[in-house]
Design a protein that fits this description.
Layout: E1 11-12, E2 23-24, H1 31-37, H2 46-53, H3 57-69, H4 71-87
Antiparallel strand pairs: 1-2
């Protein structure tokens, strides 16, 4: 992935995070969460998302731009999370007791 020359006011890498995607500065809110709130079957307007999360509208605009320009990175991270879930067996239903007690 090419190094981005875009400067963001509200987004930055999060030191110590296992994720490479950027977060709203000063918190635990990934850019992708904001972006996904604006798409899908029930998309919200950026100003609504900003109000929902108590952040400036400009932070949502930056998150949308960031996600559109870093779609490959976000896809890689989602795939890595799914692989970790499968590796740890967290995608399996819990074992059902066989002694007849539910």
């Amino acid at each position: 992935m090419a190094v981005s020359t875009t400067t963001y006011k509200w987004l930055a890498p999060r030191p110590g995070s296992r994720y490479r995607q950027w977060f709203v500065q000063g918190g635990n809110l990934p850019a992708e969460v904001l972006y996904r709130a604006t798409i899908g079957p029930e998309p919200r307007m950026p100003e609504e998302v900003a109000q929902d999360y108590g952040i400036p509208r400009e932070a949502v605009d930056e998150a949308i731009d960031y996600c559109l320009h870093h779609a490959d990175l976000l896809q890689q991270e989602r795939e890595a999370v799914r692989a970790d879930i499968r590796r740890r067996g967290l995608d399996q239903h819990p074992a059902v007791p066989t002694d007849g007690v539910a």
